[in-house]
Amino acid sequence: MAKSNTTPVMKQYSKIKEQYPDAFLFYRVGNFYELYGNDAIKGAQLLELTLTHRFKNTKHPVSMVGMPCAVADTYVDTLVEKGYKVALCEQLENPQKAKGLIKRGITQLITPGTIMKGGSNEAEDSNYLTSVVRTKSSFGLAYSDLSTGEIYTTHLRSFAVVSNELLSLRTKEVVYNGPLTDQDNNFMHKANITVSKPILLKGKHAEISYVQQKLTNRAEKEAVKQLVGYLLTTQKRILAHLQIAKSYEVNQYLQMSHTVQNNLELTASAKTGKKRGSLFWILDKTHTAMGGRLLKQWLARPLLSTDKINYRQEMVQALLEGYFTRENIIDALKGVYDLERLTGRIALGTVNARELLQLAYSLQIVPVILDALNQSDSTVLRKYAAKINPLKDIAQLISTTIIKDPPVLATKGGLIREGVDKQLDRYRNTISNGKKWLAQMEAKERKKTGIENLKVGYSKVFGYFIQVTNSNKDKVPLNRYTRKQTLTNAVRYTTPELKEHENLILEAHSKAINLEYKLFVELCEEVEKYIPALQKLARQLASLDVCYSLATVAEQNNYCRPNFHTNNQDIKIVAGRHPVVEKVMKAGKYIPNDTHMGSDTDIYLITGPNMSGKSTYMRQVALIAIMAQVGSFVPADSADLPIFDQIFTRIGAADDLISGQSTFMVEMDEANIALRYATKRSLVLFDEIGRGTATYDGMALAGAIVKYLHDKVGAKVLFATHFHKLTDLDKTLDRLKNIHVSATEKNNKLIFLHKVLPGPADKSYGIRVAQLAGVPPMVLREATKLLKRLEVQNNKLIPTSKRPDPLINSSDREDKQEKDMQNGDDNRLEVLRVEKDIIDKIYNLSLMDKTPRQIMQMVENWQEDLKDK
Ligand SMILES: Nc1ncnc2c1ncn2[C@@H]1O[C@H](COP(=O)(O)OP(=O)(O)O)[C@@H](O)[C@H]1O
Ligand SMILES: [Mg+2]
């Protein structure tokens, strides 16, 4: 173990490690990083590296793994991705100049919430570090993306709301000042969130008072202070790009829990977790990484203010109508790099010359964008252009300072253009004159000595030399030449003249490199002064990119601009479509549907066979509402909408993976949240609630929930159900309307029309769907008979269809058993219980989830059960 080994190096190591017990300590030794002790043992496992030992032949060998510094990045990424932290411990002095043990210290703590991966132009997602402060009465929450420096903060009433924010932000790391209950800990663990203790800062820090300046709430101030404190201590550098913290209220936006966002597949498909199949997938036609990130933020936080929504709509419309403006802008935007992250790198001091040029190129494009906007007919676009500062000076400064194709390293020279600095030019002149002199000397010496292949060369160790091959050794004028180095087939010489020029060249070279680096740093410092302006410009371009994207999507898919009214909650959508489902279908195949929920309709009770389109219809309404409040156009011929304050869902039967609860618990939990927090201004989607439990339980609960929503909540509710009995509720609940998704028969086959029509669905479609799925006719006939009987026997639990059923012939209908039952023959009751049980199963069977083989198996089991009786 590291502790028992008392060599000076290990003592130094232990002292540093003590301060970072929860991080992997990467200890720099020359060109390697080494991990010792437990870090090494665990690291070897996680990184698949070979475990070796240091001080092998002593009493106290130390476990060790090592890696070249050049490849360390990927190992750091791997560990941090798994939720660990890495402390980089560097050599703080030049090993050649150090006396005794080299000074070492931690230069950066890399954590899941602060890691910045890859270059500056490939980041589609934000990585948020979140800080949570528990005060007496509330929770302060603040988060920041270190690569861009934006900071947001809010205060929340309970830990439940805090956890929801954490999930919505997809935060990887939380700095938390309070103790966590077991349940909270469990939540963090399942959500893959690393919990870090706050680090107390001593003294005053300019960064903190700067970012806090607009805040008034105490919990928010504390959260921001804790956040910035953590960033400063882990990063150990000045963070000039941290932006003034913006306070937000969760209720300034259309509120949707993380589960709701997932259920509605706003940014990722629920099935695959990928972008494809999500609303973001449809809407994202952005051309910059910052635009993509901004669109995601807009989707997660749709607006409540009609003015703000209107403004976005105006922008989208102007771009939609101005085809040429749009095309010109986008051609230009394509060349814009990730300004947000570039600015971050400038602030963090990690920017290189190539990235500075990327910044300059991007800035040079801005005037082109401004021209396009200014030439537009739209006043909105022209006004937008007037607000943009293209920062021409900065672009000019960078592009006239940095050469065209600079190296990544700033310490090796070759970065700065000619004419930038007189002294640098002088050095370069000396170098180039020196080199010219060398060439001339080579020619001269060849002539003088008669050695044809004599040549002047340079090596790092020996400097400049004259090289002569062994065969010509005798011709060397030893009175002038001094031997410098002997190779196998040649000898290298120098002369006093050469020595003198060598000194001139090398000195000029080393001075030039140092001067170039100094000039580069000065340039960075100059650019740094423009960080707030660059950040503002980045946001303006990102917004423009998003509006462009929304305009393009609206045009390609024939969306309309929705209208809003604030005096009532009426929904009026004509020919609405589901943006994603319509897109994955062949053009023209999607059947549009209207939604008219006026003041007389709060609840749509939706029935219809499996696979007819109930779920699709409900989601389509929610997605249209969300898109509208984001400022996007919507997939419909026209849409008149209220502003919703919250959206609640209970959709699908997938278990909640994060909390690990059972389906039914999750179902009730989500239903409960909707019942408690929904207001008259909310939109509620309940899809087949009660499915997760026994039929009668489920139906009773579903019925009670509908009634509660109707009587007590008054939200707009779309309620899809397979409990046909519930369609009777329209007799007692006057703001409930039955609608159904229609299907029809042709040649005794069921055809889905996907058309939403008034009134309840015909209940016997369940059996018709079975027929469609290829269930044998005998079973279908039997099922139909049993269904009929059951309707009579079971107090008409399921409303009788008025239509005669074509699947049953008249002789069947006069079946003797039926008469027996109607006569109330008690002996039949036990048999009927079994039959009814089977009927229930058939009735509730979701056929589309089953293979024909599974259905055959079930039918066989039912036959067995029937035979037993
Ligand atoms: N309006 C529509 N137009 C065309 N096809 C539709 C429509 N609505 C749904 N569908 C198709 O029907 C399938 C089943 O829809 P879904 O909403 O899951 O049905 P349900 O919830 O009634 O079981 C969808 O995957 C889609 O392919
Ligand atoms: Mg469904």
Q: Total helix count?
A: 29
Low-confidence stretches: 654-659, 795-830
Distance between the termini: 74 Å
The CATH homology group name of the largest domain: P-loop containing nucleotide triphosphate hydrolases
Q: What fraction of residues sit in β-strands?
A: 15-25%
How would you describe the overall organization of this protein?
With 869 residues, the chain is an alpha/beta fold. The chain folds into six domains: 8-110, DNA repair protein MutS, domain I (MutS, DNA mismatch repair protein, domain I, 3-Layer(aba) Sandwich); 129-252, MutS, connector domain (Nucleotidyltransferase, domain 5, 2-Layer Sandwich); 284-391 and 530-557, MutS, DNA mismatch repair protein, Chain A, domain 3; 422-524, Orthogonal Bundle (MutS, DNA mismatch repair protein, Chain A, domain 3); 563-758, P-loop containing nucleotide triphosphate hydrolases (Rossmann fold), CATH 3.40.50.300; 770-868, no CATH class. 45% of the residues lie in helices and 17% in strands. It contains 29 helices and 26 strands. Strand 8 (139-145) and strand 9 (150-156) form a beta hairpin. The structure holds adenosine-5'-diphosphate and magnesium ion. The site of magnesium ion (MG) has 3 residues, from helix 21. Residues 811-827 have a biased composition (Basic and acidic residues).
